[in-house]
Every structure is written in structure tokens, then in C-alpha cells.
Specification:
Rieske Iron-sulfur Protein, 5-stranded antiparallel sheet, 13 strands, globular, binds FE2/S2 (inorganic) cluster
């Protein structure tokens, strides 16, 4: 579900639980844990930290929290949603922010070749301490709830405020021949804290 329709951070969705789990990892010093089980509403969610390969590659479809492939009409202008690689949706580095803006809104250092039809995609893992970047301000600024790092999705997800040391990594995306959003490679840079 698109975030402009319903704020996922106020729901009991599985991905909210993942966000909470990741936040716990970030602030709780549990980064060496290989997996994390989060009991919530009678269910258990696991963020796998064992997978160390590329989470995206050329031809991997983006899917929503229900594992449905994402069409270009999924988001209204200015909205964003969380998507995942169809092949590895449950790994810790998989959560990805998909944003839609007017194509003319994007500026450097956004890699425009990585955008399609006003859509850009960035890692959702905060580069400060690994929480999920799960909130958004009225102007579209992405906000990490842990220590309030802010990122501009129309400027390559550069840091505009807060303690994060670098931008969220951008994912190259395109439209597949059958009309879905699809990666054309892996994230451009490191995911989460610790990378260059
Ligand atoms: S983890 Fe500290 S601002 Fe995101």
C-alpha cells in the first residue's frame, strides 16, 4: 500500500515490525546478531542477516509488502512506499524506499539514469546506525526516527540534517517489458552504516 494512502508506521503491518526490529538493531548494539525475531500480534518476523550477496541484480522485480510486483501507477505524485527485491524480500538489506516525483524535481546528485517515469529508489537502511528510514515530512524529506537524520529523495537522498554520514544508496530501476518496476543492478553504494 502506498504511504500516501495510509501511513505504514501507524499500522501493525509486518514491515512496520521489521522497521521496529531494525531500529532495535541500530540502537541496541545487536549488529552481530544474524537474525532477529520480533513477536508482534501473535506473529514472528525475522530479518535475516545471514545473506551477504547482492540483494538486487539486473532483472529483479520490485515487490510490495504483499510480494506483489509494482506497477508505475502504484504511487501518487509525491508519495513513497517500501518495496523489496522479489528474490530476497526478507533479508536485512532488502527494504527499499520507492519515491515518485515530477521528473523535473530531481537534481544532482540523483543519478537520473537510475530513475524511470519519476520513480527513484533508495536503500531504506539509515547510514547512521542502521534504523529504517520510516518517516516523511510534508515536503517529502525522508526521516529516520532513531536520531532524526534527514534525506532528500530528489537530491540523491543526500543528508540534509542529522547525524547520518552519507546518502542512502540509490538503486537503478527501469520498467520491465511486462510493465512492472524492475532493478537493473544492485544498489550503487554501500547499504546502511559502515560503508564509504
Ligand atoms: S540510525 Fe541514527 S539517525 Fe538513523
Amino acid at each position: 500500500m502506498a504511504d500516501n494512502e495510509h501511513d505504514p508506521d501507524s499500522t501493525e503491518s509486518g514491515w512496520q515490525r521489521r522497521d521496529i526490529a531494525k531500529a532495535a538493531l541500530g540502537v541496541g548494539g545487536l549488529s552481530t546478531v544474524l537474525s532477529l525475531t520480533v513477536p508482534a500480534t501473535g506473529m514472528t518476523e525475522v530479518l535475516s542477516r545471514e545473506f551477504t550477496g547482492a540483494v538486487y541484480a539486473d532483472g529483479i522485480y520490485l515487490v510490495d509488502e504483499d510480494r506483489n510486483r509494482v506497477r508505475p501507477g502504484a504511487l501518487e505524485m509525491g508519495a513513497r512506499m517500501t518495496v523489496f527485491p522479489e528474490t530476497h524480500p526478507g533479508v536485512a538489506d532488502a527494504p527499499t524506499l520507492l519515491v515518485r516525483n515530477e521528473e523535473s524535481a530531481y537534481a544532482e546528485p540523483t543519478n537520473l539514469a537510475f530513475t524511470v517515469a519519476g520513480y527513484a529508489a533508495y536503500s531504506k537502511v539509515c547510514t547512521h546506525a542502521g534504523c529504517m528510514v520510516a518517516e516523511v515530512e510534508e515536503d517529502g524529506t525522508l526521516v529516520c526516527p532513531c536520531h532524526f537524520a534527514k534525506y532528500d529523495p530528489t537530491a540523491g537522498a543526500e543528508v540534509t540534517d542529522g547525524p547520518a554520514p552519507r546518502a542512502l544508496s540509490q538503486l537503478p530501476i527501469t520498467l520491465s517489458s511486462d510493465g512492472f518496476l524492475m532493478a537493473t543492478g544492485n544498489f550503487e553504494g554501500a547499504i546502511g552504516p559502515g560503508g564509504e
